[in-house]
């Protein structure tokens, strides 16, 4: 059977499974809608947390980033895994004991202020929409390539799927759907890795195969270093980033992880604090399976790509290349007219993404209207490295289709979690807690469902008008979470003297600073409509790492302002003391 037939079969089966779970797990109360009734087992919650956490950025983009960045890509592995450890050990048990549904709920009650709650809601919406933008782009990429539908139609299909299981079941439906999605995505990620590791190194375990020998007796990494240097790239195993920027990006990703509202809320779905710790440990184990495999996938895909396309006659190029050309995610412009693909160091494009003319070149290549004068003739979008890898390695069609199903599972699971955060922030923290305190449970549930519908429509627009490749957008979302939530949460738990004035000032300044830097140095939406060059970065800090500086500024402002203003009420200080006592576990409550 063809790849497309296999893809329709596997995607159809997985979607039917998601719909079945959504119908079975319909939410009948706000507690079921917000925290799945608070009675999810640690094992199920661990798998759901892993699926929630491992988004399209982890599945589709991370290995692609590492394959292009080499050693420098390790910041994503260190930051994202380290951040989860930080969250599991330092925050999750205390937040679970506090017993609230959402991060804005914690901040509103801890800082005895509806203003603090509103600022937290705004921060949650900014972080969640930035993060969900990457997920919807991932959905569009998978649908447009594997199901041969228009990318906009693909995004709409993805929106519909998420709407059904999130709208019906809320957190209850999302939780059990995410358990299924974890099984799908981890199987889809590992099977090609086993195949390619065996194919290239004779060792079925990819983590070991990455350090193994290839045909001819050379080590795989040595071979890749040689290929890189021959083409003018830096050695794959050497880094180019400054020590400070590596530290800044890693720390921003770590503390951003610990401040992500859609991951934090997962610890409110288990019955006890002990269960929160167990599910955190299990989730880390489930996450580690993919995260330790991603560097191997990066090495395999990078080696195969270079060997397959560099200096190859275009007319003899494999079918996968021309298939991906049609998506605009890989492109060739024959600048020297020799009919061969010249892949060397340097940008093939002056812009971020190829803009094709309708005509083809004399050698059949897609013409790139904004090609730069650099010698490099090949444009490769980083997001295709995992998705195209099985095709490049000439694996069976069912394996290629399986990767498509896994990519959709990863993107949809995280999108659902993020959309629920947006929904609960509006219905619970804004409407129930502030605008209409006397709203009935039925009315609150209706407001939550309307909010999730609106959020999905906005998320779909992000998918249709994508802001950049998936992992870059997601990394910026972590910076926003680091700059806004992390200081308010960590100081709220461990500093009795921290008051509402300090928390509000810190969050406002932190997220404003991060947004300014992100817009000025990343998006190109600043005055000249062109992202400012790296030479102008403050303290040599990239936009992905600036969350560290914004977080430090937040902490300093929060502490200074709190010491210059009145101390919190005595009952709040006692509450903070009680949170840190290990025994006991309060029931999650909406009141």
TrEMBL record:
Pfam families: SSF (PF00474). Its main location: membrane. The chain crosses the membrane at residues 6-25, 77-95, 116-134, 146-167, 179-200, 246-268, 280-300, 398-422, 443-465, 471-494, 501-519, 545-564. It is a multi-pass membrane protein. It is found in: Membrane. Keywords: Membrane, Transmembrane, Transmembrane helix, Transport. Gene3D superfamilies: Sodium/glucose cotransporter (1.20.1730.10). The keyword Zinc does not apply. It comes from the Bacteria. Belongs to the sodium:solute symporter (SSF) (TC 2.A.21) family. NCBIfam families: Na_symport_lg. This is Cation acetate symporter. It comes from Kordia aestuariivivens.
């Amino acid at each position: 059977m063809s790849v497309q037939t296999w893809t329709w079969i596997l995607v159809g089966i997985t979607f039917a499974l998601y719909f079945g779970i959504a119908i079975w797990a319909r939410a009948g109360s706000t507690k079921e809608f917000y925290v799945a009734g608070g009675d999810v087992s640690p094992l199920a919650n661990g798998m759901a947390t892993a699926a929630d956490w491992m988004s399209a950025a982890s599945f589709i983009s991370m290995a692609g980033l590492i394959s292009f960045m080499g050693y420098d890509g390790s910041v994503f592995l260190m930051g994202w895994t380290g951040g989860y450890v930080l969250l599991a050990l330092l925050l999750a048990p205390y937040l679970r004991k506090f017993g609230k549904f959402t991060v804005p709920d914690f901040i509103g009650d801890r800082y005895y202020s509806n203003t603090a709650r509103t600022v937290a809601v705004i921060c949650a919406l900014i972080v969640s929409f930035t993060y969900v933008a990457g997920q919807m782009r991932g959905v569009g990429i998978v649908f447009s390539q594997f199901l041969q539908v228009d990318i906009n139609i693909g995004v709409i299909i993805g929106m519909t799927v998420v709407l059904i299981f999130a709208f019906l079941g809320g957190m209850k439906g999302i939780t059990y759907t995410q358990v299924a999605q974890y099984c799908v995505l981890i199987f889809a990620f590992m099977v090609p890795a086993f195949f390619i590791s065996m194919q290239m190194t004779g060792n079925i375990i990819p983590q070991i195969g990455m350090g193994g020998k290839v045909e001819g007796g050379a080590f795989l990494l040595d071979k890749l270093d040689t290929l890189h240097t021959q083409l003018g790239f830096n050695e794959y195993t050497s880094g180019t980033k400054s020590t400070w920027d590596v530290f800044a990006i890693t720390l921003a990703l770590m503390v951003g992880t610990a401040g992500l509202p859609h991951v934090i809320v997962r610890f409110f779905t288990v019955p006890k604090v002990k269960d929160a710790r167990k599910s955190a440990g299990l989730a880390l184990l489930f996450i580690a399976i993919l995260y330790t495999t991603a560097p191997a996938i990066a090495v395999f895909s990078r080696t195969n790509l270079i060997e397959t396309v560099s200096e190859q006659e275009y007319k003899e190029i494999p079918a996968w290349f021309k298939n991906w050309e049609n998506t605009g995610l890989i492109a060739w412009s024959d600048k020297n007219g020799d009919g061969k693909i010249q892949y060397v160091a340097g940008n093939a494009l002056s812009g971020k993404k190829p803009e094709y003319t309708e005509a083809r070149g004399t050698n059949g290549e897609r013409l790139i209207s904004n090609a730069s004068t650099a010698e490099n003739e090949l444009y490769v979008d980083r997001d295709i490295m995992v998705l195209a890898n099985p095709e490049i390695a000439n694996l069976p069609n069912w394996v290629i289709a399986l990767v498509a199903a896994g990519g959709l599972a990863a993107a949809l699971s995280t999108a659902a979690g993020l959309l629920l955060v947006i929904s609960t922030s509006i219905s619970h923290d804004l409407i129930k807690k502030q605008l209409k305190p006397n709203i009935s449970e039925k009315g609150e549930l209706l407001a939550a469902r309307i909010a999730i519908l609106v959020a999905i429509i906005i998320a779909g627009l992000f998918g249709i008008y994508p802001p950049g490749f998936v992992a870059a957008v997601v990394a910026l979302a972590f910076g926003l979470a680091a700059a806004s939530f992390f200081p308010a949460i960590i100081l709220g738990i461990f500093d009795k003297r921290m008051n509402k004035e300090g928390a509000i000032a810190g969050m406002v300044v932190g997220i404003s600073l991060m947004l300014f830097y992100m817009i000025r140095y990343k998006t190109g939406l600043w005055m000249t409509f062109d992202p400012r060059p790296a030479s102008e970065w403050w303290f040599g800090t990239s936009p992905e790492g600036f969350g560290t500086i914004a977080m430090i500024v937040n902490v300093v402002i929060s502490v200074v302002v709190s010491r210059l203003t009145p101390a919190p009420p005595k009952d709040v200080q006692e509450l903070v003391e009680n949170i840190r006592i290990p025994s006991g576990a309060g029931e999650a409550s909406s009141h």
